[in-house]
Amino acid sequence: MRRALRGAVATAFLAALLAAPLTPASAADLRIANGGFDEGLTGWSGSHSPGGVTAVVWDGRTTARVADADPDAAYGRESLPGLPATAGRRYTLSADVWADSGAAHLYVRFRDASGRLLGGGANASATGRRWNHLTTSGIAPTGTATVSALIYSGVADVGTAYWDEVLITGDRTDLGVQIESSAPNATTFAGGSAYALYTGTADANPQLAVIDVAGEKVTRKITIPDTAATPTVGGWAAATATDGSVYLGTYPNSKLYRHVPGQSTVTDLGRAEGGYSFIWDLEPGANGKVHGGTYNDGRYFTYGGGAFTTIGAVPVVTGAQYVRSLAHDPAADATYLGTGTNAALIRFDNLTGRVDHLLPAAYAHNSMVGGLTWTGGRLFAWIDRTLLVLRVVRDADGSHTAVTDAAITDVDLHHSPARDGRVWFVREGLLHSYEVATATVRATSVRPGLDVTGYTWSGGTLVGLGAAEDGTRIFKYDPANGQWSSRVVSGAPVLPAAINALGTGPDGRIYTGGYLTGGTGVHDPLLGDGDDGRPDTPTRTGLSQTDSLLAHDGRLYIGAYPSAKLYSHDPADPWPPRLRYTGGEAGSKADDCEPGKGPPPQDRPYALAGGPDGTVYMGTVPKYGKRSGALTLWKEGTPGRTLCVVADQAVVSLAFAGGTLFGGTSTRGALGVDPVYAPGASATLFSYDPGTGAVRPHPLPLPAPKAVTALAEVDGRLWGLAGGSLFTLDPARPQEITVNRLFPDPDYAARPSLAWRDGVLLTVAQDPRHVYGTAGDQIFRIDRSTKALTVLLTAPGMEGLTADRFGHLYYKINERLFRLVAWP
Fold first, then answer.
1. Which fold has domain 26-170?
2. 22 versus 816: which is more confidently predicted?
3. Which of 464, 664, 783, 811 could be bridged to 788 by S-S, CB 3.0 to 4.6 A?
4. What's the rounded Cα separation, in Å, for the pair 493 and 495?
């Protein structure tokens, strides 16, 4: 089913603001046929005096020349037949024109279904021997069926003009899906088939794909059902029970689903106990049962006999929010649980309820035990790319301890079941084996070329299934003879990916970054195709989840999660971008910006800014379980560095103003901190002096703000958003802060994500009177002089804001990109 994940806006603005109209969004771009005159005058009809208009090349561009030597005649061409239009909507027309002599005029025109002219908008005119960009608009009158463009030289005009790039848009346009993904998040195997779970979005349900391992193709695709009250977006958990049933664990509704191989449906078993949102892992137990682990209440549960049962305490480990991974020893009926955000590893005896803690002390500062497998008589535990091989020993008093046989670094998450005394995994791109008896690691020369989400054995052949840049791949390797293959699975689901970040590149195109599954979309403003259900251009692969985008000095800079990676891309170069810096490798896991100590490793780069000397600044949220974000400085030719700036607060906004970098903080730390907001803390503004390296706080005259989510330079001053308040200051006198209350603060308790990335402020050159912004599901503009606020649009679920070269605004709702024409 199709549905919206987000309901009504959790936090209301003032009643007057909520009255702002929400106009319908048209689907896809309106494309004037031959708007660039590359096909001569095809599609342009003469509506005035005959002649006067020819197709020529001018200044290296294909153009329409309007030559008017008669002061008693009018010459022009109209883009007929017109494009579909709706009465009551505003349409904006733009064009490039070189007025070699005299004046050139541009009109938008509206016609009814019979072609009768109903009227048009105001005339836009240009003069001057240079390329001018003209814009005009008009509201379609009653009876409108089509809209068209008229390039024109009127009666009493004399002159010659060259026209190019005639473009049109409605007031609000749904540009549709921008990113697609064919990456499975979870995989299990049963009876010669792989069962792969593909994540959807708030408006597109996830799918289960049944993949024939031998034939390497999808034989069945099943859409995961849900309800409007408990929508299913995706899942990270899949397991095959001892009775052959396939189980799936999903989010954000913590539901469990069962699929019986051979059937064409999945059964919704309901929501597991508790008020959490994720089932993170599933593991088969005895007698057809499955065990599961959850976020955010750290619960360990079992499903069997048609019912859910919570096992042990809640949370199963004191302070745990995540049961991130499970492994089951069927001989002992013991389950191993990896928890977070302060990493713990326990053995839970399902017969006696005894809990034994096994995590080696050297890993106590990690945030999560991310993957567990019990195989070959050993426990394999994946912790931040280190694979621990643990021998579990029963002590004389009946307790259990773990002895570390091996600690293998730089290992991908998943590893194979043991066979012939060996376990297989990918390390630094190469397939490796681990021999259990001798604790020996051996590398092969095999490069599987995919992120494996599940392994199995088919006879003597190792099989892995997972995600690659070109879709879902299946990998096969025969240890006996070294033969291997890695092939794309045919028929795998291709689903839209939610947009997580958007920004305008140095090439003027709108870039979007995908949530969870990554990927990058590229939209050419006003030149999209007519299919809003698929991206305009193929999804660019090679990046994980994008959190921020910045155009600076001719490059596109990209901040990506996890590990706060900074990439750069020159639009003239091939994709993918170059990795420049990794914030997840900075700092110490034991530190959290305590006095005299550095930052913890960083994870979510929500803020980017560029300095005049080419330095790129990145503001980040730390790794799970930590509070202190950081400021990263990177410049071409330097290794980059990460600094503590405000202890116990994340850095979520940045802007360069008056030769100084300013940053805004959030009192919300990383996921997994408890309480969510630092007790008694107030978000603040800070400055960083690039010359001296000095960091200076600038407390805001506000009552305990939770976050400063937006900063921008406007007319030489710094503007910022802290909750529902606008503050401004002169960078030369930052202690003199002026505050204007715009609207009530967001409900940060109900929607804590707003404390990371709610607000945006930006300016557009075409409108020097206003500053545009977003906060709390609304787009608004602020008068630069009076600070008066006007809400332009209210749309539940809208996030982000950027502008194209025409001054049009772009935002996103789930997987869809929208354009809003806010002026003239």
1. Jelly Rolls (2.60.120)
2. 816
3. 783
4. 6
